[in-house]
Amino acid sequence: MNLPRPVGEQLRDWRRRRRLTQFDLADLAGMSTRHLSFIETGRSVPSRALLLRLAERLEVPLRERNALLTAAGWAPMYRERPLDDPAMRQARAAIEAVLAGHEPYPALAVDRHWHLLSANRAVMPLLAGVTERLLQPPVNVLRLSLHPEGAAPRIANLGEWRAHLLHRLRQQADATGDAALAELHAELAAYPHDGDDGHAPEPGPTVAVPLRLRTPAGELSFISTTTVFGTPMDITLAELAIESFFPADAATAAALRALLGD
Protein backbone atom coordinates (compact mmCIF):
# COMPACT_ATOMS: atom_id res chain seq x y z
CA MET A 1 0.00 0.00 0.00
CA ASN A 2 1.42 3.36 -1.05
CA LEU A 3 1.01 6.04 1.59
CA PRO A 4 0.17 9.55 0.33
CA ARG A 5 3.05 11.98 0.25
CA PRO A 6 3.00 14.59 3.04
CA VAL A 7 0.72 17.50 2.26
CA GLY A 8 3.62 19.95 2.57
CA GLU A 9 5.62 18.17 -0.11
CA GLN A 10 2.62 18.15 -2.42
CA LEU A 11 1.99 21.86 -1.92
CA ARG A 12 5.65 22.64 -2.56
CA ASP A 13 5.55 20.67 -5.80
CA TRP A 14 2.44 22.52 -6.97
CA ARG A 15 3.97 25.87 -6.05
CA ARG A 16 7.10 25.09 -8.04
CA ARG A 17 5.02 23.79 -10.92
CA ARG A 18 3.27 27.17 -11.01
CA ARG A 19 6.67 28.92 -10.81
CA LEU A 20 5.79 30.78 -7.62
CA THR A 21 8.07 31.63 -4.71
CA GLN A 22 6.92 31.09 -1.14
CA PHE A 23 6.49 34.85 -0.90
CA ASP A 24 4.31 34.89 -4.04
CA LEU A 25 2.01 32.13 -2.82
CA ALA A 26 1.79 33.45 0.72
CA ASP A 27 0.78 36.84 -0.64
CA LEU A 28 -1.87 35.30 -2.90
CA ALA A 29 -3.27 33.22 -0.03
CA GLY A 30 -3.20 36.02 2.55
CA MET A 31 -0.82 34.29 4.95
CA SER A 32 2.74 34.72 6.18
CA THR A 33 5.69 33.27 4.33
CA ARG A 34 6.83 31.77 7.63
CA HIS A 35 3.54 29.88 8.04
CA LEU A 36 3.72 28.58 4.47
CA SER A 37 7.32 27.47 5.04
CA PHE A 38 6.26 25.56 8.16
CA ILE A 39 3.49 23.82 6.18
CA GLU A 40 5.82 22.83 3.34
CA THR A 41 8.42 21.40 5.73
CA GLY A 42 5.84 19.51 7.79
CA ARG A 43 6.24 21.60 10.94
CA SER A 44 2.62 22.77 10.65
CA VAL A 45 -0.58 21.18 9.28
CA PRO A 46 -2.91 23.54 7.40
CA SER A 47 -6.56 23.88 8.34
CA ARG A 48 -9.07 22.61 5.82
CA ALA A 49 -10.05 26.15 4.84
CA LEU A 50 -6.44 27.26 4.36
CA LEU A 51 -5.57 24.15 2.38
CA LEU A 52 -8.49 24.74 0.02
CA ARG A 53 -7.49 28.38 -0.36
CA LEU A 54 -3.95 27.40 -1.25
CA ALA A 55 -5.21 24.80 -3.72
CA GLU A 56 -7.42 27.41 -5.37
CA ARG A 57 -4.59 29.93 -5.68
CA LEU A 58 -2.39 27.19 -7.16
CA GLU A 59 -5.17 26.12 -9.56
CA VAL A 60 -4.81 22.52 -8.39
CA PRO A 61 -7.20 20.18 -10.28
CA LEU A 62 -10.09 18.80 -8.21
CA ARG A 63 -8.72 15.24 -8.26
CA GLU A 64 -5.43 16.44 -6.76
CA ARG A 65 -7.24 18.68 -4.26
CA ASN A 66 -8.75 15.51 -2.83
CA ALA A 67 -5.23 14.09 -2.54
CA LEU A 68 -4.12 17.20 -0.63
CA LEU A 69 -7.08 16.96 1.74
CA THR A 70 -6.47 13.28 2.39
CA ALA A 71 -2.76 13.84 3.06
CA ALA A 72 -3.65 16.52 5.61
CA GLY A 73 -6.08 14.22 7.41
CA TRP A 74 -9.26 15.73 5.99
CA ALA A 75 -12.03 13.93 4.12
CA PRO A 76 -12.06 14.30 0.30
CA MET A 77 -14.38 17.07 -0.84
CA TYR A 78 -15.05 16.26 -4.48
CA ARG A 79 -16.94 13.24 -5.79
CA GLU A 80 -16.29 11.43 -9.06
CA ARG A 81 -19.38 10.03 -10.71
CA PRO A 82 -19.57 8.32 -14.12
CA LEU A 83 -21.57 10.20 -16.73
CA ASP A 84 -24.28 7.52 -16.65
CA ASP A 85 -24.87 8.09 -12.93
CA PRO A 86 -28.45 9.39 -12.30
CA ALA A 87 -26.98 12.42 -10.51
CA MET A 88 -25.23 13.36 -13.76
CA ARG A 89 -28.37 13.28 -15.87
CA GLN A 90 -28.58 17.05 -16.31
CA ALA A 91 -24.89 17.36 -17.14
CA ARG A 92 -25.10 14.52 -19.65
CA ALA A 93 -28.13 16.12 -21.27
CA ALA A 94 -26.25 19.42 -21.53
CA ILE A 95 -23.28 17.70 -23.18
CA GLU A 96 -25.47 15.90 -25.71
CA ALA A 97 -27.37 19.11 -26.44
CA VAL A 98 -24.13 20.97 -27.17
CA LEU A 99 -22.89 18.18 -29.43
CA ALA A 100 -26.16 17.84 -31.35
CA GLY A 101 -26.60 21.59 -31.59
CA HIS A 102 -23.20 21.94 -33.26
CA GLU A 103 -24.23 19.78 -36.24
CA PRO A 104 -23.59 19.74 -39.16
CA TYR A 105 -20.12 20.57 -37.82
CA PRO A 106 -18.07 18.00 -35.83
CA ALA A 107 -17.92 18.08 -32.03
CA LEU A 108 -16.85 15.56 -29.43
CA ALA A 109 -16.49 15.24 -25.65
CA VAL A 110 -13.29 13.91 -24.10
CA ASP A 111 -11.99 13.15 -20.61
CA ARG A 112 -8.70 14.33 -19.07
CA HIS A 113 -6.70 11.70 -20.97
CA TRP A 114 -8.37 12.53 -24.29
CA HIS A 115 -10.56 9.43 -24.33
CA LEU A 116 -13.70 9.86 -26.39
CA LEU A 117 -16.86 10.08 -24.28
CA SER A 118 -19.37 11.12 -26.92
CA ALA A 119 -19.51 12.61 -30.41
CA ASN A 120 -22.09 13.99 -32.80
CA ARG A 121 -23.03 12.57 -36.18
CA ALA A 122 -20.63 14.82 -38.08
CA VAL A 123 -17.53 13.14 -36.64
CA MET A 124 -17.83 9.64 -38.09
CA PRO A 125 -17.80 10.61 -41.82
CA LEU A 126 -14.40 12.20 -41.21
CA LEU A 127 -12.87 8.94 -39.95
CA ALA A 128 -12.95 7.05 -43.23
CA GLY A 129 -9.75 5.08 -43.69
CA VAL A 130 -8.90 4.87 -39.98
CA THR A 131 -7.90 1.35 -38.94
CA GLU A 132 -10.62 -0.43 -36.96
CA ARG A 133 -8.44 -1.14 -33.93
CA LEU A 134 -8.02 2.58 -33.23
CA LEU A 135 -11.80 2.88 -33.08
CA GLN A 136 -12.17 0.25 -30.37
CA PRO A 137 -13.02 1.70 -26.94
CA PRO A 138 -11.46 3.42 -25.21
CA VAL A 139 -10.79 5.63 -28.22
CA ASN A 140 -8.06 8.19 -27.66
CA VAL A 141 -8.71 11.09 -30.02
CA LEU A 142 -5.11 12.36 -30.04
CA ARG A 143 -3.83 8.89 -30.90
CA LEU A 144 -6.55 8.67 -33.54
CA SER A 145 -5.40 11.97 -35.01
CA LEU A 146 -1.63 11.38 -35.14
CA HIS A 147 -1.25 7.61 -35.53
CA PRO A 148 0.08 6.52 -38.96
CA GLU A 149 -2.94 4.19 -39.25
CA GLY A 150 -5.30 6.90 -38.02
CA ALA A 151 -6.15 10.26 -39.56
CA ALA A 152 -2.51 11.39 -39.90
CA PRO A 153 -2.01 10.33 -43.56
CA ARG A 154 -5.01 12.43 -44.55
CA ILE A 155 -4.05 15.60 -42.67
CA ALA A 156 -2.74 17.99 -45.31
CA ASN A 157 -0.85 20.15 -42.79
CA LEU A 158 0.29 17.29 -40.58
CA GLY A 159 3.50 18.92 -39.37
CA GLU A 160 1.68 22.06 -38.27
CA TRP A 161 -1.23 20.19 -36.68
CA ARG A 162 1.08 17.66 -35.00
CA ALA A 163 3.21 20.43 -33.48
CA HIS A 164 0.05 22.14 -32.21
CA LEU A 165 -1.32 18.99 -30.56
CA LEU A 166 2.00 17.99 -29.00
CA HIS A 167 2.54 21.49 -27.62
CA ARG A 168 -0.97 21.55 -26.15
CA LEU A 169 -0.53 18.09 -24.63
CA ARG A 170 2.84 19.01 -23.12
CA GLN A 171 1.32 22.12 -21.55
CA GLN A 172 -1.50 20.03 -20.11
CA ALA A 173 0.91 17.42 -18.72
CA ASP A 174 3.10 20.11 -17.16
CA ALA A 175 0.13 21.95 -15.64
CA THR A 176 -1.48 18.87 -14.10
CA GLY A 177 1.52 16.69 -13.30
CA ASP A 178 -0.41 13.78 -14.80
CA ALA A 179 2.04 10.96 -15.65
CA ALA A 180 -0.44 9.38 -18.09
CA LEU A 181 -0.46 12.57 -20.17
CA ALA A 182 3.34 12.67 -20.18
CA GLU A 183 3.39 9.04 -21.38
CA LEU A 184 0.84 9.84 -24.08
CA HIS A 185 2.97 12.77 -25.24
CA ALA A 186 6.03 10.53 -25.50
CA GLU A 187 4.06 7.95 -27.48
CA LEU A 188 2.64 10.47 -29.95
CA ALA A 189 5.94 12.28 -30.40
CA ALA A 190 7.58 8.99 -31.37
CA TYR A 191 5.17 8.23 -34.21
CA PRO A 192 6.80 8.25 -37.65
CA HIS A 193 5.39 10.95 -39.88
CA ASP A 194 6.08 12.67 -43.18
CA GLY A 195 4.93 16.13 -42.15
CA ASP A 196 7.23 19.09 -41.58
CA ASP A 197 8.20 19.38 -37.89
CA GLY A 198 8.22 23.16 -38.01
CA HIS A 199 6.18 24.98 -35.38
CA ALA A 200 5.45 28.06 -37.48
CA PRO A 201 1.96 28.25 -39.00
CA GLU A 202 1.65 28.16 -42.73
CA PRO A 203 1.56 31.56 -44.46
CA GLY A 204 -1.85 33.14 -44.86
CA PRO A 205 -4.48 35.18 -43.01
CA THR A 206 -5.13 32.51 -40.35
CA VAL A 207 -6.14 33.43 -36.79
CA ALA A 208 -5.74 29.89 -35.38
CA VAL A 209 -3.94 26.67 -36.31
CA PRO A 210 -6.29 24.95 -38.78
CA LEU A 211 -6.90 21.27 -39.30
CA ARG A 212 -6.87 20.56 -43.03
CA LEU A 213 -8.25 17.11 -43.71
CA ARG A 214 -8.39 15.28 -47.03
CA THR A 215 -11.76 13.50 -47.39
CA PRO A 216 -13.86 11.97 -50.19
CA ALA A 217 -15.75 15.28 -50.14
CA GLY A 218 -12.53 17.19 -50.82
CA GLU A 219 -10.11 18.95 -48.50
CA LEU A 220 -11.93 20.31 -45.46
CA SER A 221 -10.46 23.01 -43.26
CA PHE A 222 -11.40 23.53 -39.59
CA ILE A 223 -10.61 25.71 -36.64
CA SER A 224 -11.44 24.39 -33.17
CA THR A 225 -12.60 25.64 -29.79
CA THR A 226 -12.65 24.00 -26.36
CA THR A 227 -15.59 24.25 -23.93
CA VAL A 228 -15.42 23.26 -20.26
CA PHE A 229 -17.96 23.33 -17.44
CA GLY A 230 -17.86 26.42 -15.24
CA THR A 231 -17.32 25.93 -11.47
CA PRO A 232 -17.72 22.13 -11.48
CA MET A 233 -17.90 20.31 -8.14
CA ASP A 234 -17.57 16.83 -9.63
CA ILE A 235 -14.22 15.48 -10.82
CA THR A 236 -15.69 13.94 -13.98
CA LEU A 237 -17.16 17.27 -15.07
CA ALA A 238 -14.02 19.19 -14.11
CA GLU A 239 -11.94 16.95 -16.36
CA LEU A 240 -14.37 16.90 -19.30
CA ALA A 241 -13.96 19.08 -22.36
CA ILE A 242 -15.98 19.53 -25.54
CA GLU A 243 -13.92 20.03 -28.68
CA SER A 244 -15.94 21.82 -31.38
CA PHE A 245 -14.74 22.18 -34.97
CA PHE A 246 -15.92 25.05 -37.15
CA PRO A 247 -15.51 25.36 -40.92
CA ALA A 248 -12.62 27.64 -41.81
CA ASP A 249 -14.04 28.38 -45.25
CA ALA A 250 -17.31 28.36 -47.17
CA ALA A 251 -16.43 25.21 -49.12
CA THR A 252 -15.97 23.23 -45.90
CA ALA A 253 -19.27 24.50 -44.52
CA ALA A 254 -21.10 23.46 -47.69
CA ALA A 255 -19.46 20.03 -47.73
CA LEU A 256 -20.39 19.34 -44.11
CA ARG A 257 -23.99 20.33 -44.71
CA ALA A 258 -24.09 17.99 -47.67
CA LEU A 259 -22.59 15.11 -45.68
CA LEU A 260 -25.42 15.24 -43.13
CA GLY A 261 -28.07 16.13 -45.68
CA ASP A 262 -28.70 19.53 -44.11
Plain-language structure description:
- Helix content is 42%, strand content 12%.
- It has 262 residues and is of the alpha+beta class.
- It folds into 2 domains: 7-71, 434 Repressor (Amino-terminal Domain) (Orthogonal Bundle); 86-259, Beta-Lactamase, CATH 3.30.450.
- It has a 5-stranded antiparallel sheet.
Name the CATH architecture of the largest domain.
2-Layer Sandwich
Tally the helices. Answer: 11
Number of domains: 2
Q: Shape, please?
A: elongated
Bin the helical content: 40-55%
- Helix and strand string, N-terminal first? HHHHHHEEHHHEEHEH
Spans with pLDDT under 50 lasting ≥5 residues? 198-203
- CATH T-level fold name of the largest domain: Beta-Lactamase
Can you list the strand order of the major beta sheet?
Answer: 2-1-5-4-3
User: What radius of gyration results from the CA coordinates?
Assistant: 21 Å
**CATH class identity of the largest domain:** Alpha Beta
First-residue to last-residue Cα separation:
56 Å
**Category by helix and strand content:** alpha+beta
Main sheet attributes: strand count, strand direction, barrel closure: 5 strands, antiparallel
Strand content: 5-15%
Q: What's the total number of strands?
A: 5
Mean pLDDT: 93
